[in-house]
Write a structure and sequence with these properties.
3 helices; alpha+beta; 2 domains; 140 residues; five-stranded antiparallel beta sheet
Length: 140
């Protein structure tokens, strides 16, 4: 009789372990598949208007000759290049992406886009070429 009980307990343990493994797999899959909503803004160099990426999604047209395929025609003026913007993780400033005058300065040591406030040589190089990477509309 004890042989039957130990066999039943062994089978119950195997079933419980298998169910636990499946539950862990489902939980892990669901928690890794949840993505935060995209919080990218766009800033037009021509009309100086800024807007959220959701406004651009319905009219996604790449601007020819831009440094990146994420530079678009502006949805407001339909002329100028609208560049994506980025928030600096260190100082919180918002700056324009893909308008860098010198690509050697465009990224920091970790490979993230460089902030012109935290990397002054980038801001100086951009200003020398007449490019304001941190317009007041983005940093009131």
């Amino acid at each position: 009789m004890s042989g039957k009980n130990s066999g039943a307990l062994k089978n119950a343990g195997i079933v419980a372990a298998a169910l636990s493994a499946v539950a862990l797999l489902v939980w892990s899959w669901n928690s890794n598949m949840v993505q935060a909503p995209v919080q990218i803004g766009y800033y037009c160099l021509s009309c100086k208007k800024t807007d959220h990426i959701s406004v651009y999604q319905a009219n996604w047209r790449q601007y020819p000759g831009a440094m990146s395929d994420s530079v678009l025609y502006c949805v407001h003026c339909n002329k100028g290049p609208a560049h994506p913007t980025n928030d600096c993780e260190k100082c919180g400033s918002v700056f324009i992406l893909h308008a860098y005058p010198d690509m050697r300065l465009a990224y920091d040591e970790s490979g993230s886009p460089a902030c012109p406030k935290c990397k002054p040589e980038l801001g100086q190089a951009a200003n020398a070429k007449g490019i304001n990477l941190m317009p007041k509309a983005l940093n009131p």
